[in-house]
Amino acid sequence: MSARMRSWLQTEARGRPGFPHARPRAPQDMALPGPFKWTGTRDMTTTSPSATASTAAKKKPTEPRAKKPARLEEAEKLAAPTLENITMDSPERFINRELSWLAFNIRVIEESQNTNHPLLERLRFLSISASNLDEFYMVRVAGLRGQVGAGVQSLSQDGLTPSQQLDRVNAMAGELLRMQQEMWTVLSKELREEGISVLDPSEVTPEEYSWLETRFLEQVFPVLTPLALDPAHPFPFIPNLGFALALQLQRISDGKHMDALLPIPTQVERFIRLPARDGEDENQSVHFLSLENMIGLFLDRLFPGYKVVGQGAFRLLRDSDMEIEEEAEDLVRYFESALKRRRRGSVIRLKIEARMPATLRDFVVRELHVTERELVTVDGVLGLAQTNQLIIDGRPELKFVPYNARFPERIRDHGGDCMAAIRAKDILVHHPYESFDVVVQFIRQAAADPDVVAIKQTLYRTSKDSPIVGALIEAAEAGKSVTALVELKARFDEAANIVWARNLERAGVQVVFGFIELKTHAKLSLVVRRENGGLRSYVHFGTGNYHAVTAKIYTDLSMFTCDPRFAHDAAQVFNFITGYAEPKGLEVLAVSPGSLRQRLMGDIESEIAHARAGRPAQMWIKLNSVVDPLIIDALYKASQAGVKIDLVVRGICCLRPGVPGLSENIRVKSIVGRFLEHSRIVCFGNGYGLPSDQAKVYISSADWMPRNLDRRVETLVPILNPTVHDQVMDQIMVANLKDNQQSWSLNADGSYDRITTPEGEEPFNAHQYFMNNASLSGRGKSLQKNFPPKFKLNAAQE
Question: Is 521 annotated as catalytic?
Answer without folding.
Answer: yes
